[in-house]
Amino acid sequence: MRPNSLIELDRDHLIHPVISWKGHEARGATVLQSAKGATLTDAEGHTLLDGFSGLWCVNVGYGHESIVEVAAEQMRRLPYATGYFHFSSEPAIRLAARLAELAPGDLNHVYFTLGGSDAVDSAVRFIRYYYNVTGRPTKKHMIALERGYHGSSTIGAGLTAIQSFHDGFDAPTQLQHHIPSPYPYRNPAGDSAEAVIAASVAALKAKVEELGADNVAAFFAEPIQGSGGVIVPPDGWLKAMRDTARELDILFVADEVITGFGRTGPLFGVEHDGVVPDLMTTAKGLTSGYSPMGAVLMSDRIYRAIADGAPAGKPIGHGFTYSAHPVSAAVGLEVLRLYTEGGILENGRRAGARFAAGLARLADHPLVGDVRVRGLLAGVELVTNKAKRTKPSPDLGLSGHLARFGYKNGVIFRAFADDIVGFAPPLCCTDEDIDTLLARFEQTLNDVLDVADVRAALA
Ligand code: PLP
């Protein structure tokens, strides 16, 4: 089918996530057609280096035949097996066991979902259930971080602190609260690790005191905030927050939907600080986007308390038709094999070091205020005055310029609110991919700088 007819059909029938529907009608879709390694090709034959791994999910890169083979084989043998009641399937069992083996500490129990939003939603429901069956039913309030993203389910969107996920949706924020994000570049008390950690610890304690410890259930945090602008907390922050949560008698939930599966170097983001959360939510890199799947990992203690505390003989009523889907589980097992035995994690670490060095060189660019990188997760914050760290005026429309010039230069990244550019290239990137990505991004920045209004704003 010609691209134009596809674009018309898309405009008439396909509702897209996280976009102005009217804006999309006016612009039309970019139809992606095929991919290999780190390169995408659109329906017009334009090739794009994918600096964002789809939506920070295709960690192993595109075109792995071994994944296609295990999916096809599983579809032939057993395309579906319910996880309900006492039914199970071999790939789901093996994937749960492998995750328990790879995850830190005693996160030994795995509940499979279809993605990240329902993993967060499931975590909230299990936490509520846990406190109800262990005799502490007043513990209902959840605390998360400003600029945090925890999906767009009804509950998760309340934990998410990005305004467009609340506005107009009546997000249930009565039981969900936010404290400032650990954002060194814009921390009012300075960017030292001590100042950032002290501010977060004090904010969590103050919020729990305000709500009453008997009413607070959990603290949710991404080890590195993704959609909020790739905010990288200092070393030691996760451990301080984990310890504070324990001291306050609230659960600590690490949302590893982006940071899991090698994105930041180690398999999980919490490993940077050697932290073991009470629950962990994952998705994306679990199957590298080849098939939808997420997972909640639960500690021995929480699992046991729920199993023993639930009313005898009554079902624990939480489940999805596609929980523990055998095809996704088979894909997940092969993806995990590629990370650990196929050299992908190791390659990701090497590529991450090269990417970090290249981005550091761009710190001198007139538009670049801050560069933050962990592994292959990076944020580049643009400013119009480096010394004063001035956020660009929305009137400059930088994100539109970035998207337009990025496409012209053949590179995909994401421009978040406050003109922060996010990168999450596939872990399979070669040195050449990384160098090309950096060169195309630099060209894009130069093109943006050449826009008359932008140059005038910097003068
Ligand atoms: N949690 C985090 C940290 C995420 O970044 C996302 C998605 O980007 C989600 C949850 C929601 O995941 P999904 O889009 O798979 O529902």
UniProtKB/TrEMBL annotation:
This is Aspartate aminotransferase family protein. Keywords: Aminotransferase, Pyridoxal phosphate, Transferase. Belongs to the class-III pyridoxal-phosphate-dependent aminotransferase family. InterPro entries: Aminotrans_3, Aminotrans_3_PPA_site, PyrdxlP-dep_Trfase, PyrdxlP-dep_Trfase_major, PyrdxlP-dep_Trfase_small. The keyword Transferase applies. Its cofactor is pyridoxal 5'-phosphate. One of its GO terms (molecular function) is transaminase activity. The lineage of its organism: Bacteria, Pseudomonadati, Pseudomonadota, Alphaproteobacteria, Hyphomicrobiales. Coiled coil: none annotated. The keyword Glycoprotein does not apply.
